[in-house]
Amino acid sequence: MRIGNFFTVFTTIILTAICLYYIHSSVFKKYNQKILNLGLDLKGGISIILDISEKDLLKKFSENSKNPFFIKGLEYADKKKKENPNEDYLSFFINFFNQLNISLSSPDLFGNRINIEKIDSNSLNSEIETFLRKKIESSIISIQNILRSRIDQFGVLQPNIQRIKNSNRILIELSGIKDLDRIKKILEKKAELHFFETYNFQEVFPYFNEINKFFHRKLNKKKSFIDLLNISNLKSNNIVGLVHKKHKKVVSEFLNSIEASEALPYNLHHVKFLWGAKSLLNKNFLQLFAVKINNEEKSTFLNGDIVTRAYKSFGAFNEISINIKMNQEGTKKWKMFTEKNIGQNIAIVLDDLVYAVPLVQSVIPNGMSQISGNFSIQESNDLVNVLNAGEFPTSVNIVQTDMVGPSLGRESIQKGVKSFLIALFFVFFWMIFYYSIPGLYSDIVLIFNIIFIFGILISMNAVLTFPGIAGIILTLAMSMDANILIYEKIKENIKNKISIFKSIHNSYTLQGALSSIIDGQVTTLLCGIILFYFGTGPIQGFSTTLIIGIITSVFTSTCLGKLLLEWHLKRYQNIIFNNKMMFMNVFHKIQNIQWDFLSKRKWSYVISSFILIVSIFSLNFQGLNLGLDFVGGRSYVIIFDRKINPEKISEILSKTFIEKEKPSFPNVFTFGNEKQLKIVTKYKIWEDNNKVDEEILQKMFISLKNYFPVHFDFKDFKNIEKNKSLGILSSEKVEPLIAKDMRYKSFISIILSLIGIFLYILIRFKKWQFGLGAVVSLIHDSVIVLGIFSFFYRKFSILEINQSFIASLLTIIGYSINDTVIVYDQIRKISKITMFSTMKQIINTGISSSLTRTINTSFITLLVIFIIFLFGGTTLRSFMLSLFIGVSIGTYSSIFIAPSIVYDFCKKI
User: Fold this and answer.
1) In sequence order, what are the beta bridge partners of 659?
2) What are the tens digits of pLDDT across the range 547-594?
3) Which of 5, 137, 240, 596 lies at a C-alpha separation of 20 to 30 Å from 318?
């Protein structure tokens, strides 16, 4: 056995064994090591993007500077960031000071006591910028670790927590989770832990009685302030009020008003009123506490970083207590604090909510404390988790949420598997039908390719999304291209009277089909890498499978495929690459076509120019149906028990979603089947308030209540549960600034793809005309696809421009350039062996010699795409339609546009 074949056999055996091991352990859930995680669109769950506030970090690093230039600098950065969301916030801030020639080393800016080791009066702004960048980066890493710690303690299997590249945002994907409100509260908690002295009711009541006379005059309420406090229902001297939830805002605003503040007596000069974390009396009433704030006494302040451990314990009657262990600094402060307050109640406050007011019975010298209270299991778990995870160095804001129900996920899995198996069957059948025995070997190679792809994905603990499945299927279809190239080269050699042994050997060399395979796959791989770098979530899943699939397909097609053919030849001494059936002669005669393609190039230019003009006209005047990814907003998939008219629902909701006295018409269309609707609205998208989410759900439920059974309530409507047959199946929210960032990254990814492709072709083919032809044909393909989506989107709601569309556009670019490069490669090879032919003859011959491969590969790819379009479900329909259009146009442009441009520009030199 030759060394090359030995290497192939050895590598294949090792890779197959490893991959089958991972597949087996994942399928049967053995060894609990590596599994293939299902994405949210397959399993259901919650996806959240958190934005880390650089503004708050700068405030922290400056010790909340009151310098007027500092405040103006933040305002300037805020304004610029809104205008250019893809730019760096810190750069805007630093630029403001550089423009005014103001030093950032001032003691009331960043030259303060906490930064004294790194910044002095002589520090340059550039040095301070470097320092601040390191501090911000450190804070983001710290927040990511805290988030991971918090989420891990909820028992979520394989959560996906990752920082979005080159940004201050963190993506969190939690499979199987459905309580979005609870997750939001946990993720946004700062865990700022305070221990305060308290005022009792007798100390505070005279003050309440005094300010009561201002209440009616200020707010013109029917009830008095004392009435709102429900004093008669107080069961503890530590509580100073029991307020109904609907009166919380009124009470808070009044206690913080100028009249109430000016009426404070001397003994209450340091009072701060805080709400309790727990609600009482059927969860309708909130406790009001009064605590003592004294900024001069730092011993009264302890934060989450001082807590080293928090855990639950159970009393004699199964009551739950929270135990807190403090570090050395916390122990010292806690001893002093408890010594001062023996016999007094203290308030344990987390994020300005009072969790307990225990009585200090003695000095606590060892830093061990216990919070006793009437905690539920969930409340105690949440409190322990937050305390153990620690404190955020800055605030975090949820800017995007996406909630997918398990029932939608189950349907996606079924359709994904179905489309995968059907597409695979047709690929297997066609290769055997067209190439006979060699086609069977290509199918065997494809099976190994599938094993390798899934084995590698499992070994990486990768998350498989529905676009990821599409990437696998598309990769498998495109991997057939390598086998087709090799087989067509073998047939060409045999036709030229070269022996079968030598024909097979030569076809697997750079002079044979290998150079075409490498060039085509490298350009597609380049698109996949750019897509992976700029994409998030589902798009990264798609690009991951695409990249892995390209690498494995090159190995299996060129190494394993050659091994199988040589084994067959050695055993049977002959192998036939043509199916002898009569009607196959039509296909085989294509390779003998010698047509003057370039003579028709003017017709190609006219046809393409007409379609391009219509596309550009439509893009300018009709625009595109931009999805949430690009404009921001909220979307909901809702299932009903009968067929629903989308236009009627849109009209009803427009009367509910009224903003600035104008109706906001949502985009409503059938999604999946006639009982499911997708509702997309931009109502109040600019309001940075999580309460708007609940408001929209309530408005939708009230408006659509007549379309649901009488017993169906709001809780049933909004909760996402397994096997749900009515109500919301999934929801998504994208902030406008995030959408603007998506548009920018999508544009950049396409531009970089084109530049990279041009440079690669320039290097490989050593003529800029080839690069120009390729790039022009790719722009031609992209504009036409966009034009078709623009022209027809008012008639077909699935023609939406979103992240999946960008993924398909980059895939089209990759496929089209693969087609074009193979035609180019044939032209290059013919030019080397033909000394006296004209440029026109060389290009025509190159197109003709690659025509069989182009038609065959395009047919297989389009067949696979069409099958996924039919059976893959609604979530992939727009994606597959754009691929079908793009691959069709790409095939046309690789034959008629790119070679024609090369000829016209070479002719002029």
Assistant:
1) 662
2) 888 888 888 888 888 888 888 888 887 788 766 554 455 555 555 566
3) 240
The SS3 assignment for 606 reads helix
- 3 state SS of 236: coil
Tokens of 287: 């406790």
Residues forming a β-bridge with 732: 402, 635
CA 181 to chain centre: 20
CA distances from 619 to 625, 786, 880 (A): 10, 8, 21
Q: What are phi and psi of 279, to 5 degrees?
A: -100, 150
Output the CA–CA distances (angstroms, integers) from residue 756 to 338, 530, 580, in the order listed. Answer: 67, 10, 43
Q: How many residues does the chain have?
A: 909
Please tell me the distance from the alpha carbon of residue 171 to that of residue 738, in angstroms, as a whole number: 12
Residue carrying structure tokens 């404190």: 391
What pTM value is reported for the model? 0.64
Per-residue DSSP letter, 626: B
CA 526 to chain centre: 21
d(CA 203, CA 813) in angstroms, rounded, equals 74
Residue partners of 584: CB distance under 8 A and separation at least 6 = 434, 578
Cβ-based neighbours of 601, under 8 Å, separated by 6 or more: 896, 900, 903, 904
* CA neighbor of 792 nearest in space, from 642, 618, 648, 627: 618
Please give the C-alpha separations between residue 476 and each of 415, 471, 645, in angstroms, as whole numbers. Answer: 18, 9, 40
Handedness of CA 608, 609, 611, 612 (dihedral sign): positive
pLDDT tens column, 691-727: 777 788 888 888 888 888 878 888 878 776 666 778 8
Task: Put residue 567 in one of left, alpha, beta given phi > 0 → left and psi -120 to 50 → alpha.
Answer: alpha
Whole-angstrom Cα distance, residue 74 to residue 111? 17
What is the rounded (10 degree) CA torsion for 284, 731, 161, 15?
140
Distance CA 403, CA 635 (A): 10
Q: Would you state the structure tokens that stand for residue 208, as one six-digit string?
A: 């309440």
Quote the CA–CA distance of 469 and 449 in Å, as a whole number: 14
Joined tokens for residue 650: 């849109």
Nearest to 458 by CA among 548, 346, 356: 548
DSSP code at position 352 = T
